Amino acid sequence: MSKKFINPLEATELVKNSIKKRRAKDNRLRLYGRIAIGMATCFLLFLFFSIFTKGYPGFFQYYVTLDIKFDRERIDPKGDLSDTSLYEGEASNIVNESLFSIINPQGRKAKKEARKIVSSGKDLRIAKLVKNDPSLFGTVTKVKFALDDDIDSFLRGYINRDTPESERRISDNVIAFVDKLSQENRISYEFSDYILKGSASGNPEMAGIKGAFFGSILTLSVCLLIAFPLGVATAVYLEEIAKKNKITEIIEVNINNLAAVPSVVFGIMGLAIFISIFGMPRSIPLVGGMVLALMTLPTIIISSRAAIRAVPPSVRDAAYGIGASKLQVIFHHVIPLAMPGMLTGTIIGMAQALGETAPLLMIGMVAFIVDVPNSVMDPGTVLPVQIFMWADFAERMFIQKTSAAIIILLGFLITMNAFAIYLRKKLERRW
Amino acid sequence: MFNFYLLVVILLISFLFFFIGLKEAKKLRLVYKNNLHSLPHYYGFYALLASLLPSLGIYFLMTIGDDFLFSHMIKSYIPDEVTNAKDYNFLIALAQINNSVEGLIFGTPPQWVTDAAELWKSWVQTSNIIVASLCLLTSIASGYYGFLKINQNFRSRNAVEKIIMTLLAASSVIAIFTTIAIIFSVVFESVRFFALIPIDEFLFGTVWNPQFEGAERAGSGQQGLSQYGSIPLFAGTFLISFIALCVSVPVGLFSAIYLSEYASSKERALFKPLLEILAGVPTVVYGFFAALTVAPFLRTTGSMLGLDVASESALAAGLVMGIMIIPFISSLSDDVINAVPQSLRDAGYGLGSTKNETVLKIVLPAALPGVVASIILAVSRAVGETMIVVMAAGLAANLTANPLEAVTTVTSQIVTILVGDQEFESAKTLSAFALALTLIIITLCMNFYALHIVKKYREQYE
Amino acid sequence: MSDKANDFKSLDLTVGDVFSKEARLKARNVNVYYGDKKAIDNVTIDIGNKEVISFIGPSGCGKSTFLRCFNRMNDTIDICRIEGQITLDNENIYDSNIDVVPLRARIGMVFQKPNPFPKSIYDNVAYGPRIHGLCENKEHLDSVVEESLKRAGLWDEVNDRLLSPGTGLSGGQQQRLCIARAIAVSPEVILMDEPCSALDPIATAKIEELIHELGNEYSIVIVTHSMQQAARVSKRTAYFHLGKLIEVGKTKEIFTRPQHNQTEAYISGKIG
Could you give the CA distance from residue A14 to residue C129 in angstroms, rounded to a whole number? Predict the structure, then answer.
């Protein structure tokens, strides 16, 4: 040692001199941390804010109230209220006549434009009304009809009346008609009965999530029925029964790898195996559920294994000590005690499956399907795919509907996750 | 509906055997004064399983098998003038027949399709009768066999447990089957793709321009306008992932450091779940956000600054993807930082170092492997992410490093090629499988490496 | 190697009388391995009818491992391998056609840490009779539960809250609940693995008293850390050291006149 040992007094002095700088550095790191957290929180808030401000109006739309003369001859020519009879009837003409009596369009072109003011779902609406309540026949009743999406956008202020006529989607004539209608207080802004009760539709004012919602429920049910038993069984086998050997190791590595496979690849597998080889139909919730089940299986297995491992060995010893068999120990003690953890993992897996889009695109759940699926074999779509499809449409009103659908989807996801957290807190056992 | 009723009847029969077995066992129990090996209900279960499992097995085998059989049998009923036609494809013919069977009739199908469909329907009826009678017979016969085995010395509990253990073991093999299915579904098609397009052209080509060309031309190996160089796709994928990392690594890492070292327990309890919400938002929502909020915002900001930003720029997709993977980095890094033993920190504080010095010079270097692993996992997540890029990145295969231009990615090409109508056997359709194969290999390698690092790291502190 | 030679070897190692006149359990040349490590080295000993025998020795000497061989609890450990022979009433319990389930019903076990199931007190005791189908009806089961709790000296303390969770009892009560649970299936032998090591002195005294009483009904093998406890509850004592059985004998003699120098060293506190 050539250099002398530092004198303690000198050392204290040195530390004292540098301490300010070091403290500043410390504060800077803390600040960076705060900024990072702040940014992440801001991203989250901005995301939610942007979705909610866009989506909230999507739950509402503009309606026009018209006096409808329920003339049985014209609406229900066969008089048996059957679908064909109502289809042959001329309900739309009745609605248009009522509309024309207010706005009084002149000339062919104006009449043609006027017919488009009320959404093309008007005849279906009348058919539904008379089916539910045939006593309407012969009366004149006020009925609300959705307005066409362009007019809806105009009323919301997205279409400016000062832009030249050639550059906007609605003509001067139509603007005049709408003004007339609002003067007569016939236009109202109300909670949309299409967003929740309507199904897929090319007309944005009539589009709703009902079909996708039921598609999601069916798909998730299939997914749950397959993934939960399989996941729990696999976890139990690997933790409680399997000897530690090569095969078990291969299974474990496999599960970890499956968790890392991109979701779109599961879709390709569904396409190649279930649809091409097994010859199952496209677009059905059964195949969708199976693909999602295989995708969520690793999540469920991994969390179930953690839950099983958390069951203290003393409980197993106690049961073995009285002469319980291995399966009795598993089914009477280990599974009941690990159940909260397994359920939490399953709910999180299901939430993941509920939000998943890409694999379902691959197996054709992206098809345009108007009917609500009644069984897992009926073609259908699911909420996230519906969102994806709507996001692709050009009409302005679809943006609001998409955001509204996103709010509903997020609502379900938050509920599921909150339930998982609640379950974990409530049933968590301290050993 | 037929299948449903058949399954219900099989179930009912097996339950019947449960009660018969239970009753028999109770009788034996009285006779032998509690000297029965197992509890009576195990004898019931044994009879139930004996009745149920074989018939279910037969049912599934036959329902899966009959489609194969029928499509093989139908071949000889397709008229020669159809099979000899130049554009004949058996799969298309089969699809036509199947559609007709299911009642999906578009226009007027040719006579032979309708005939074949009628034939098919009659086969389905015959096979239904065969399946039903076979399943019912099996369930009764094997159930009766199980019932016969019930006697005083029969160890029904052990037998039942053995069956259940086998079932549990079988379910764990599903994971292996899934992997095999994934490999199977991409490898075969990829091999066929590489038969059409040389592998080096795919791996090293710089132009991606797939076209539908009609099956016969691609089949004969003729080169058309199509080019299948995957470099632009991978460049696009990694450009977007890189942008995502630029957002998520600093934010995620600093958040993790702050949460594990500086934050009070209250802050931790608030912000940790908040960050995890970001991981729970569906990717389609991020895609929508990127396409309708972020991209227009970047475009207007860009034009104000005099920059030309593409409406589907890599930047928009990358930024939003970055937000999405923040929680992957922050929570895994948080875990590894927490796993650094307190004794190391104490050593640092004991020397009088500040928090900053302890974190940067002691904790972080110790946790570095884990942090690196978390970043690799995040990259693999970003590379495999589909919806954001499908919705917010374009389809133009530009080979560029400029984040303001539109690029395309592997996953968005896969989706575009495989969604909707596909041409059988065309190089374009097959290329999606080759892309998927490459994607799987890349993500698996990253995952493998990351887990390897984490494992080594854990061993260090255990 | 012939059996004779083996016997000779083990007798050569062990001091004192390993045999018992009315032997229920007989261990002959038992070796236990954990992987490659030998945990029990050639132990031979008898457990007599209705006798209380203590296994003592320093920690890690293998006494608990050896105890767990008697009801094949070591089966649950994958890497554990057992050689030699253990018979219960002259029937080899490691025979391939022996079912461990009825075996464990005949040889009950109480563990080091009280480990009641996270269920009600009633369900804890009733679990064994239920899985073995010992009771025909609810009344019978009720009386078995009551009798077991009475024998375990717990009835008076818990009879008003049979449906509250067993995990809510105090440590000593939990351990007595575990004993009640073990005797509810009417075992012939009870193995106790340091049953008092997690308990305070008062609870320990109660359990010891209980073991003393139960000794009139059952054969009891108790592994203990405390020599005083061994002296208080057992008639015979076996001293283990590093996986070997060093000395067996009447408790009084072992503690007053140990014959092997290692036993003496342990008892006088030189090993511990």
Answer: 76
Answer yes or no: do A234 and B175 touch at CB < 8 A.
yes
* Predicted pLDDT of residue C124: 92
Of B102, B135, B154, which residue is a domain's last?
B154
Residues B149 and B242 in one domain: no
Which pLDDT tens digit goes with each residue over C102-143? 888 889 899 888 888 888 999 999 998 888 888 878 999 999
Nearest CA in chain A to B102: A281
- pLDDT at position C272 is 55
Task: Tell me the average pLDDT of chain C.
Answer: 86
Please list the residues that pair with C43 across neighbouring strands.
Answer: C30
Chains near A with 3+ CB pairs less than 8 A apart are B, C
**pLDDT of res. B422:** 63
Question: What are the distances in angstroms from CA A386 to CA A196, A293, B38, B416?
Answer: 13, 20, 55, 17
Q: Could you tell me the pTM of the whole model?
A: 0.85
Give me the number of domains chain B comprises.
Answer: 2
For residues A270 and A287, the answer to whether their CB atoms sit within 8 Å is yes
Low-confidence stretches of chain B (pLDDT beneath 50): 215-222
> Same structural domain for residues B143 and B264?
no
Measured CA distances, C182 to C71, C127, C149, C185 (Å):
13, 10, 10, 6
User: In terms of residue numbers, what domain contains B302?
Assistant: 228-461
pLDDT at C8 over 80: no
CATH 1.10.3720.10 at A210-427, yes or no: yes
Q: Which of B112, B131, B154 is the last residue of a domain?
A: B154
**Considering the domain boundaries, does residue B201 fall inside one?**
no
Query: What confidence category does residue C178 fall into, taking pLDDT thresholds of 50, 70 and 90?
Result: very high
Which among A16, A20, A22, A43 is the top mutation candidate for probing chain B, defined by the most B β-carbons within 10 Å of its own β-carbon? A43
Cβ atoms of B278 and B326 within 8 Å: the answer is: yes
Mark yes or no for CB contact C181/A337 under 8 Å: no
Alpha carbons within 13 angstroms on the beta-carbon side of residue B22 total 11
Instruction: Give the E-state strand segments of B155-212 in sequence order.
Output: 208-209
B217 inside domain: no
- What residues in chain A have per-residue pLDDT under 70? 1-4, 427-431
Closest by Cα among C125, C132, C115 to C150:
C125
What residues does each domain of chain A span?
A: 58-193, 210-427
- Segment 50-79 of chain C within 8 Å of chain A by CB: 71, 73, 76, 78
The confidence score (pLDDT) of residue B240 equals: 94
* Pairing between β-strand A187-191 and β-strand C91-92 as defined by DSSP bridges: unpaired
Q: Closest partner residue to B171 among A230, A278, A326, by Cβ?
A: A230
Question: Are B235 and B116 within one domain?
Answer: no
Q: Which of B89-103, B382-396, C70-84, C147-161 has the lowest mean pLDDT?
A: B89-103
Co-location of B317 and B416 in the same domain: yes
Structural domain includes residue B204: no
CATH number of residue B280's parent domain: 1.10.3720.10
Tell me the sheet residues that pair with C37: C34
Task: Return the pLDDT at A238.
Answer: 93
Rg of chain B over all Cα atoms, to the nearest angstrom: 31
Which residues on chain A place their C-beta less than 8 Å from a C-beta of chain C? 243-244, 312, 314-325, 328, 332-333, 337, 429
Determine the Cα–Cα distance for residues B58 and B63; give it in Å rounded to an integer.
Answer: 8
pLDDT exceeds cutoff 60 at C12: no
Q: What is the CA radius of gyration of chain A?
A: 31
Bridge pairing between strands C236-241 and C244-250? antiparallel
Q: Decide if C99 touches B, using CB distance below 8 A.
A: yes
Report pLDDT for B420.
Answer: 66
Give the count of Cβ contacts less than 8 A between chain A and C: 67
Identify the pLDDT of residue A95. 85
Q: Per the CB < 8 Å rule, is A314 touching C115?
A: yes
